[in-house]
Request: fold
Amino acid sequence: MLLRGGGEIRLIPRYLDLLIFLVEHRHEAVHRRDIFERVWTDVVVSDSALAQAVRTLRRTLGDDSREPIFIRTISRHGYQFVFRDVIEEADEGHQAQATRTQGDAARTQGDAARTQGDAVRTFMVREPPVAVREDEFEPLLQRLVMEPSDARAEEEQRECAERLHLLGTRQALARLGARPGHAYARAVLRDTRWDVAEAGAVPILGEPGAVDTAIALVRLRIRRVARLAARRAIAAAIGGAAAGAIAGGGGGLLLSLAPGSAAPVSIAAVLSLIGGACGAWGGAAVGLGISIAEAAARSRRALAVIATAAVAGGVAGLAAQWIVRAALASLVGVHVAVGGALEGALIGAGAGLGLAPATARAEFGLAAPRGRRRVMTVLLTTATCAMAALVLSLAGAVLVGGTIHAVAQASVGSEASLTPLGRILGEPDFGPLTRALIGMSEGAMFGIGIALGLTRRPSESRS
Reply:
């Protein structure tokens, strides 16, 4: 707990974890990388999220970044808790510690409440400066309705929104009304309510300018994590490409070794390239869709992830269908069935369904589970994507393997026919069983690749 004068000061759990971490390591300057590793262990967030947390702690402690008493910014490195007069006391049961900070001008009164939990700590801090008066509503609201011109102005505006929440969310919304710029201001208030423990609800539906507010909110959240979302999409593309290349190469090698097959060993390299390209395309689209959903949604995140992954997969499938059909028709004069929007949407939904439990646990940021949770996420995503592919195959839909077989059947002298694989399974041709097993394999490999890519935590240092 964080106490002042015997009364509890509410902080969201992540911010309290950060304060405890800084106090525990107060004898050194803590690098941002170490803070992310320790405090945001299961999510990936932007540097602005850390700056937001530190700003909230400073306001709570009555600190000033220009003349810091408690938390000092170490340029191009991180932060340090610099208040020297810190007393650390163990309780009688050695179950928790009480940490008390004492001010230079006046010492805090009262004893720290003893805690019963293993991980609970109590803080006593000096009183902050004079509280904000109610007549400061209007200046803060006037700054909130104007869209910021740069990153610094945006952070200052978020500070205004947080102060309005502390003054009273309901009163701030009532005073905001429907004045010019109210939709953007409401979006900022909605976004910052997650960072202020005392904040009230900021509804959108049924309020003036609901659509404009929702659009502004999505833009605001995506802009703050745009770089992270792009990097995750690239990681998902790489994962999908690797998985597709392995699946295509393995299938090609199996095809070349099948009894009665005329396919040379070199077919493995060709199918590996095709599989890698398809995996990269689908992985990039679905990965970007999932990242956007995680950035834009803080409530009902699981549903948002599944829906956005399905939409992104459908768009990618439709684009791939058009490109492949046009290429085959114009280059070799072949017209065959090619999977499209439906196939992409269902596989994308499968990937979203597998990743949804991991991202639902994340309060904000992009999910990056570790250890056993990451393994479970990968296994679940593998299973859901495989099941989606199985449903499509049983319904007669054409996936990558089916498209390759159809092209081979329509082309004179092609060696890529998958009929020998069907004969291994006891079918005279590329039958339903063969189609189902190959489809499940494609879905499973795509699930493995995209899950590994999306849950990969950046290891490089942040600058």
User: Anything to note?
Assistant: The longest helix spans residues 226-257. The chain has 15 helices and ten strands.
